[in-house]
Amino acid sequence: METTVRLEYHLAEITCELSRIFGPVAALVPDGPPGSSDFLFHAGVLPIPPNLLSSDRILFRKLHHDYNGWQRADALWMYLSPQKCRELGVFLLACAFHHPAKATTLAITHPDSAIRRIIIPAVSLKLEDLPIGQTWVPFALRYFPAETEKFPWMDDCCVHDLPLFALTNIDDCVGPTDADWRERDTVRIWATTGGSLRFAELLLNAGCSWNRVREYALEGDAGFRGVAPMSTELRIFLPGGDGWPYEGDDVPIAGVQF
Fold first, then answer.
1. If we measure between CA atoms, which residue out of 119, 120, 112 comes closest to residue 58?
2. Prediction pTM value
3. What's the pLDDT tens digit per position in 2-31?
4. pLDDT tens digit sequence for 141-155
């Protein structure tokens, strides 16, 4: 039985392109303890993200967060392993520093996931067609492992420096009916914003072996602020926490019986 489980695990990693492409870099990132060593992320050390890659090791639930009986916010619950946290963080940083000219799509292929794809929009900056005001793109990030909290950014930054998760559909044009809104299955993340870089760092820290925080709540303005204005809320669940619904230390492999 032990040999069978090990074989199935490797087969699952092969089907996860997120692991195959970004896992080698994630394995090089310091695991801590906090402040002990650093890692310099920049385009030279990160793979160029393909236009399309997939993972069956991330699972989303889609629901609402009701406040006081009269305020309702869109909410996503994301389940993933610590290893996948770090790989997802590296993926976001690769999109930020390579700023690809075409959109990058991470397909979420687990059949139980309510979200089918994460889209990182293209960064198409041209001198002849720049927006008004300052324009910038990320250059590098010096990362140190750091301690985290369930509500990570309640008091330490402007709301516009927080991540924005746009819950939409593949066409980014949701129709007017209730069914159209219920069928939203796509999340758009603008990787070059300061908030998305914060989110990538949080994922890297959440995946450290010494980290004991098993749940993160990124709430809107009705709760403990953790996302930018107009963003869908996000709750992250890791193995070992009270909110982790699975028996093992990873989301279940679709169709595999252990």
1. 112
2. 0.91
3. 333 333 334 445 579 999 999 999 999 999
4. 999 999 999 999 988
251 within some domain: no
- Answer whether residue 194 is part of any domain: yes
Give the integer Cα–Cα distance in Å for 252 and 258: 10
Domain count, the chain: 1
**Range(s) of the domain holding residue 71:** 2-125+134-237
Flag whether 244 is in a domain. no
Task: For residue 254, tell me if it sits in a domain.
Answer: no
